[in-house]
Design a protein that fits this description.
Elements: E1 21-26, E2 31-37, E3 43-44, E4 57-58, H1 66-82, H2 85-89, E5 97-103, H3 114-128, E6 135-140, H4 148-158, E7 162-167, H5 173-180, H6 186-199, E8 202-207, E9 209-211, H7 218-233, E10 240-244, E11 258-260, H8 263-274, E12 279-283
Parallel strand pairs: 2-5, 3-4, 5-6, 6-7, 7-8, 8-10, 10-12
Antiparallel strand pairs: 1-2, 9-11
Helix pairs in contact: 1-3, 3-4
């Protein structure tokens, strides 16, 4: 497979010229993440204002061609494990597989075949003898985790060194409407997060940035900390928090209004979260 050298700044879904499978060098993982994009129609049920998906539209994933997905995933993993992709396309020092990540151009759990996709991943992992330490990650906005089929998939994913990265960019309803363009309630967010924690090891993933030059408010920080504290008080054990800033330009209309916080600002909030007793990984 010829093409450009991968970098954390280039998350082009066409890097491998495949429909569903794409490789990225993840700045959070520091190695190669094998992405699976079930939302090939660029449709999502949220519209986060920092989203880098072009021509994003409201909707759900289209039907998944399971045979094609299995062939792409099996072939590409074999190429990574036994071919020259790593040597030719991945910078030195990053040439290892960190995970298989269900992410892509929309909410992956909106695919009707989500649970079947997890079974497919299990089958392919076993077939190519992928090392057990390589994770299987779901990157999700969490909005559909109340569905029994999704929870079934998460329980199976847990057996594949699974992790859920559950989006929580603000912990109040006004903030979620502003940042994620959704009118969901915090009660639903909490219920779905508790469901995720009960099915599979779960991290919060939080994008923290300035809008119109103004960083998140003290109230935003306090609401976030109280949301986590209430979970911990009730015995719902998160794995930790992935706190990150803006790395690539948004492709949404709000893009000119968004800017990255300094590493110091991001670390300061991360330190407040860590005082709750959680592991925090900060990526400016």
């Amino acid at each position: 497979m010829s093409g450009r050298i991968l970098s954390p700044e280039n998350h082009d879904r066409d890097n491998a010229a495949l429909r569903y499978v794409y490789p990225v060098v993840s700045r959070r993982a520091g190695s190669v993440s094998v992405g699976i994009n079930l939302n090939t129609n660029n449709a999502c049920n949220w519209r986060c204002i920092y989203c880098q998906v072009p021509d994003l539209k409201l909707g759900t994933a289209p039907p998944v061609d399971m045979a094609l997905l299995e062939n792409e995933l099996r072939s590409f993993l074999n190429e990574l494990l036994h071919g020259d992709f790593m040597k030719n396309r991945v910078p030195e020092g990053l040439q290892r597989i960190h995970d298989i990540a269900l992410s892509g151009n929309g909410e992956p759990t909106s695919a009707a075949e989500f649970a079947q996709v997890i079974e497919l991943i299990k089958r392919v992992r076993e077939g190519v003898q992928l090392p057990e330490e390589i994770k299987t990650i779901l990157i999700t906005n969490g909005s559909l985790l109340h569905r029994s089929k999704v929870q079934q998939g998460l329980r199976e994913m847990a057996k594949l060194n699974g992790r859920v990265w559950f989006k929580l960019d603000r912990a109040n309803e006004a903030g979620m409407q502003q940042i994620n363009d959704t009118k969901t309630s915090m009660i639903k967010v909490r219920d779905n997060l508790v469901a995720a924690i009960g099915c599979c090891p779960t991290w919060l993933q939080t994008c923290w940035f300035a809008q119109d030059g103004v960083p998140p408010s003290g109230k935003d920080e306090d609401d976030y900390l109280e949301f986590i504290s209430s979970l911990l008080r009730d015995g719902h054990k998160l794995q930790g928090v992935l706190l990150y800033g803006l790395a690539r330009p948004s492709l949404q209309p709000e893009s000119p209004r968004l800017s990255a916080l300094s590493a110091t600002q991001l670390q300061s909030f991360g330190d407040r979260i860590a005082k709750l007793g959680l592991k925090v990984k900060v990526t400016p």
